[in-house]
Amino acid sequence: xxxxxxxxxxxxxxxxxxxxxxxxxxxxxxxxxxxxxxxxxxxxxxxxxxxxxxxxxxxxxxxxxxxxxxxxxxxxxxxxxxxxxxxxxxxxxxxxxxxxxxxxxxxxxxxxxxxxxxxxxxxxxxxxxxxxxxxxxxxxxxxxxxxxxxxxxxxxxxxxxxxxxxxxxxxxxxxxxxxxxxxxxxxxxxxxxxxxxxxxxxxxxxxxxxxxxxxxxxxxxxxxxxxxxxxxxxxxxxxxxxxxxxxxxxxxxxxxxxxxxxxxxxxxxxxxxxxxxxxxxxxxxxxxxxxxxxxxxxxxxxxxxxxxxxxxxxxxxxxxxxxxxxxxxxxxxxxxxxxxxxxxxxxxxx
Amino acid sequence: xxxxxxxxxxxxxxxxxxxxxxxxxxxxxxxxxxxxxxxxxxxxxxxxxxxxxxxxxxxxxxxxxxxxxxxxxxxxxxxxxxxxxxxxxxxxxxxxxxxxxxxxxxxxxxxxxxxxxxxxxxxxxxxxxxxxxxxxxxxxxxxxxxxxxxxxxxxxxxxxxxxxxxxxxxxxxxxxxxxxxxxxxxxxxxxxxxxxxxxxxxxxxxxxxxxxxxxxxxxxxxxxxxxxxxxxxxxxxxxxxxxxxxxxxxxxxxxxxxxxxxxxxxxxxxxxxxxxxxxxxxxxxxxxxxxxxxxxxxxxxxxxxxxxxxxxxxxxxxxxxx
Lengths: 350, 322
Hints:
The structure holds two protein chains of two kinds. Chain A has three domains: about 5-115 and about 205-220, 3-Layer(aba) Sandwich (Peroxisomal Thiolase, Chain A, domain 1), CATH 3.40.47; about 130-200, no CATH class; about 230-345, 3-Layer(aba) Sandwich (Peroxisomal Thiolase, Chain A, domain 1). In chain A, β9 (about 265-270), α10 and β10 (about 290-295) form a beta-alpha-beta unit. The radius of gyration of chain A is 19 Å and the shape is globular. Chain A contains eleven helices and twelve strands. In chain A, the strands form two sheets. Chain A has a ten-stranded mixed sheet with strand order 3-2-4-7-1-8-12-11-9-10. Chain A has a two-stranded antiparallel sheet with strand order 5-6. Chain A starts with a strand and ends with a strand. The longest helix of chain A is centred in the N-terminal third of the chain and has 15 residues, at about 25-40. In chain A, α7 crosses α10. Chain A is α/β, with parallel strands linked by helices. Chain B is mainly beta. Chain B has two domains: about 10-175, no CATH class; about 180-320, no CATH class. Helices cover about 10% and strands about 35% of the residues of chain B. The longest helix of chain B has 11 residues, at about 25-35. The radius of gyration of chain B is 30 Å and the shape is elongated. At the A-B interface, α1, α5, α6 and β5 of A face β1, β5, β6, β7 and β10 of B.
């Protein structure tokens, strides 16, 4: 295996992006940030890979239009996944492992505010017996939350504490949408919205774009910003059938965590778009009580589709660069109610 | 001038997906059409509704389909205060995981109750069937508390057809608020004033019409606004002979790339006012604008392009724009 490091990360997130669904206007400054961080130029990048979905904003071939932001002349080697860009990062990581390329920029973008996000997300469900009913994403999480509440797997207090910690930590995150000093009592004082969920239990609808640079050893050391070396990178998936698995658990998270290796992790950025899902993830990953969770505020404070997972990895990498973490874990999720999960571990090296 | 926001317009995306069914789901949908729920018995003996097509343990096709009841108990539920389009009810309702009598795994469906106080885990609910079953999951309109008197027949009233259901049609209707980019918004506002605005890349100096957020060559924002002429040169074209749904002009007619004078990228428009067979590469053409009182922030302000009568442009003048 080749040693590969994260050497650049930039993000933009907002409640509503007043611009085109290709998000080119967001990606151009994001890429400029990456070149400034690394001291590299376009010619240093061997491979580009993006994550986005045309269903999100109703723009066909938006990922092709987004290539404008790269400035693709001479032509670039480029690929795309209709998934969170964390999975685009996986593709780029594999591509570097093959030895075909040494460096890559991975980016994700989405303008969820153009449509009704919780409804659009119904399109990822079983198209025969589920999607025709249009079960929305918030409701599916609500069914999951109640199962755990009534079976005693977690309680309202634990959910409220996740929300309070997230919003409080997000106070210093310039890109967070929902933030501010908050206590669990503040959370529990909020009205129930989609019983059993309060609005704050659910990630805010968010627009945004983000991008990351990774490179193999030999190249990565020349980046100006620093390097967070990837030590484990795995993803697993559970069945699409909502009744085919125990919704209070996430076997795919557990398997991905075991395969990636979570020993010695001192910080974790977990992609939990609903408060109770963080509780599932912490349990499945077996994270010790002293592991710092989501210092960025996490997805409950901003959850731009198709980049929120990559943002977890980027936030963790920033903590490694700054010396706040020696060994960090980042997680991304996709699909309904934590169906598919990705775990990446990274470390600082002297 | 004060900075205006971007232009927005509603956008509808619609498509009816026609999906064929394998034997397992065909039997499930055929059952629904006669108001009968069937589950699949897996190798471990559990009965799952809807039946999975393959056994998740043995990976064998699920062939043992057994009838289950159309009533059962709520295993989990969530309240929907603001239903979205296409859901079983357009007033607040609950989603529930319903464990039907005779099944071991729950079915996801709606439960019609007036408030979240009227539902709880363990509640007994019964299917409310459609009077016009089509062989789809929506043949169960929703579930309702089993103590409510049944108002629909429990057996299919439309049993005239006995053929198996071998497909479903799933309409997808999506509504968006579509925004033009800031550059595109300037372009469309320019058209409303009878101007064609492009933008110049500060690096390569190329002028893009319509303007884009970034120069696709250099990847930098195109910042300088440039007005270009409403006449130019046909670089390439095609003659449309094939009729299609929604066609506004009778074939044959010509769609062409027109390189406007002052622009570095051609844009697509119609060439009318000349026999299709007369249109050629290099032909000089000019915009024919609609009457001013019909103008809006749209490219349709230009009805079409027509020949100017000037001599054809030299091939070398547009060779690099092909």
